[in-house]
């Protein structure tokens, strides 16, 4: 089995390398924006959209044009990759996975991608990587990057530079280990397993909310684009990035533990996208129960259910297991003992007590047991592939996921 995996490290660039990376990322952004403007212009004039090859030809012209000759200083492959990104943005738009491509702004997800492994040298023993026009870059070697290098992405976040090394390696198809389990996702408990274990909610956002508010207030008091404003902005971004790191770390730990100990994991097929949609609704269709829903939405996004499910999916696949998604029908109201379905079974948010047979249990555990049973029934007819992975890198303004992904 071929396993594709990415390893991300923090870079320790020299001052000159930092300046160059900023310049190169800026050149990529420039090419993306120029190509997008060009496509829009063609569209308005009723001409057909240029393909990737056509755009590459334009890129060569721009690199030779005296006005934009500085583009020739940047490595050509990453510039072409920016055009590839634009192609994919259009494809995602036409497939209705994302909004129409938008112009990139300076300082927002600055990155450049080197697609050719022949031009990249990875010196693991000395914790350094060679990239065209940047030379040898040192990185914090926090773990071993296994496999053959496929491509490399350099990116900036909160003033730090990172390198993400995409690799491929052949691994033996592992045999799934452990039994099946159902998971109930909730607000008061992040995840409850049908065997009774549960994971506390992280609420990383809540924990940092106060600090974040304070930093945001301080920023709003500064004159825009002044030096003090920039400093305050950097502080806000740092808090955001810390929230993101804490959440990712927590989710990875849970999803790793669960996927290593179970061959099959059943999960409620919650339409996270719908739940997280604006509760306020539109003017034609105003939302109901807006206040409660927006609280729920915030909690869901804060806890990263969507990301958790994505991680479970690929980690189970790595371990030879399966993720089975079941429609959430009556999972919280069915008695696992006698099968009686009633809303009265659920006494409170936390307690479950069957009105027929008197079976008593924590409501989340009952939900997990029912999810597990529904999963078994479903597994009989379908195997894996039930959960579709999200399209990578897509953006939808109404989902809120992109905004939440720190
Ligand atoms: Zn019962």
UniProtKB/TrEMBL annotation:
Residues 1-47 form the Transposase putative helix-turn-helix domain. It comes from the Bacteria. Residues 170-278 form the Probable transposase IS891/IS1136/IS1341 domain. One of its GO terms (biological process) is DNA recombination. InterPro entries: Cas12f1-like_TNB, RNA-guided_DNA_endo/Transpos, Transposase, Transposase_put_HTH. The keyword Metal-binding applies. Residues 305-371 form the Cas12f1-like TNB domain. Keywords: DNA recombination, DNA-binding, Metal-binding, Transposition, Zinc. GO terms for molecular function: DNA binding; metal ion binding. NCBIfam families: guided_TnpB. In the N-terminal section; belongs to the transposase 2 family. In the C-terminal section; belongs to the transposase 35 family. It comes from Azotobacter vinelandii (strain DJ / ATCC BAA-1303). This is Transposase, IS891/IS1136/IS1341. The keyword 4Fe-4S does not apply.
């Amino acid at each position: 089995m071929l396993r594709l995996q990415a390893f991300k490290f923090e870079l320790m660039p020299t001052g000159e390398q930092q300046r160059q990376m900023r310049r190169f990322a800026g050149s990529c952004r420039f090419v993306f924006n120029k190509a997008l403007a060009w496509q829009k212009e063609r569209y308005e004039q009723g001409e057909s959209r240029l393909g990737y090859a056509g755009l590459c030809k334009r890129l060569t012209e721009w690199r030779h044009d005296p006005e934009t000759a500085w583009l020739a200083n940047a490595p050509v492959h990453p510039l072409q990759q920016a055009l590839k990104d634009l192609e994919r943005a259009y494809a995602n738009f036409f497939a209705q996975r994302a909004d129409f491509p938008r112009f990139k702004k300076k300082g927002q997800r600055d990155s450049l991608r080197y697609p050719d492994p022949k031009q990249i040298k990875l010196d693991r023993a000395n914790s350094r990587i060679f990239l065209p026009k940047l030379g040898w870059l040192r990185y914090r070697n926090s773990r071993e990057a296994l496999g053959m290098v496929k491509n490399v992405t350099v990116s900036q976040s909160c003033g730090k530079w990172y390198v993400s090394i995409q690799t491929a390696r052949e691994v033996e198809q592992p045999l799934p280990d452990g039994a099946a389990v159902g998971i109930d996702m909730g607000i008061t408990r992040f995840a409850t397993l049908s065997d009774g274990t549960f994971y506390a909610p992280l609420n990383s956002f809540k924990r940092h909310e106060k600090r974040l508010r304070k930093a945001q207030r301080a920023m709003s008091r500064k004159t825009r684009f002044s030096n003090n404003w920039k400093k305050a902005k950097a502080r806000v971004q740092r808090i955001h990035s810390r929230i993101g790191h804490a959440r990712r770390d927590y989710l990875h730990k849970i999803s790793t533990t669960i996927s290593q100990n179970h061959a099959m994991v059943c999960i409620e097929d919650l339409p996270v996208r719908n739940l997280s949609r604006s509760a306020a609704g539109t003017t034609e269709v105003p939302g109901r129960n807006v206040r409660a829903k927006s609280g729920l939405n915030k909690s869901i996004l804060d806890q990263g259910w969507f990301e958790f499910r994505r991680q479970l999916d690929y980690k189970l696949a790595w371990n030879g297991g399966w993720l089975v998604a079941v429609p959430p029908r009556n999972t919280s109201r069915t008695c696992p003992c006698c099968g009686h379905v009633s809303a009265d079974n659920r006494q409170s948010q936390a307690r479950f007590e069957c009105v027929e047979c008197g079976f008593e249990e924590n409501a989340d555990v009952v939900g997990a047991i029912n999810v597990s049973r529904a999963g078994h029934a479903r597994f009989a007819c379908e195997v894996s592939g039930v959960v579709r992975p999200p399209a990578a890198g897509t953006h939808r303004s109404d989902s809120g996921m992109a905004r939440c992904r720190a």
